[in-house]
Design a protein that fits this description.
alpha/beta, globular
Amino acid sequence: MRYFIVFGPPGAGKGTQSYLIAERFNFLHISTGEMLRAQIKLGSEVGKEAKELIDKGKFVSDNTILKMVREHLTTNYKRTKAFVFDGFPRTLNQAAEFDKILLEMEAEAKVVVISLEVDDALVVERIKKRGEIEGRRDDAYESVVKTRIKTYHNKTEPLIEYYKRKGVYYPIAGEGSVEEVFESISKLIDRLDRDE
């Protein structure tokens, strides 16, 4: 089984590209953000805790995220030949715990990290535009957006070295159009398929 992790700052296009990858290659898309938004809509305890943190531009606890991911993997394992993760893992702890989950599930898990590289100024611009289009409150305020970018640099960027050391990290220029970025990603996935 292969596990594609679409990585990058908020607003880099992780959700869009993950959806396109899943659709084109017939993989299963897992968005922790969508899972959390569903919990918020339900008004569950997880949803209430998540909403409070997200509204401040902060991350939801690793335990909550890992529990949701484990449940989703276990439930859908036999339904796909690969998973595409959008917005997970976000911390070194999540990455290490995810490795443990994969080891429990199978010996031959293949992880591929597709990293969308986008400049901070463009990230702010994109997120504000997304907030206007989708009406997402957590995207509407520049101060919240900047907190999210800062959180990304502090907590998520260390994952770059983690995955580089494992030899599974593939940077992709994320500043072009959706189609251009997706073409680069598709070429990478095709190349990895040929190399297997």
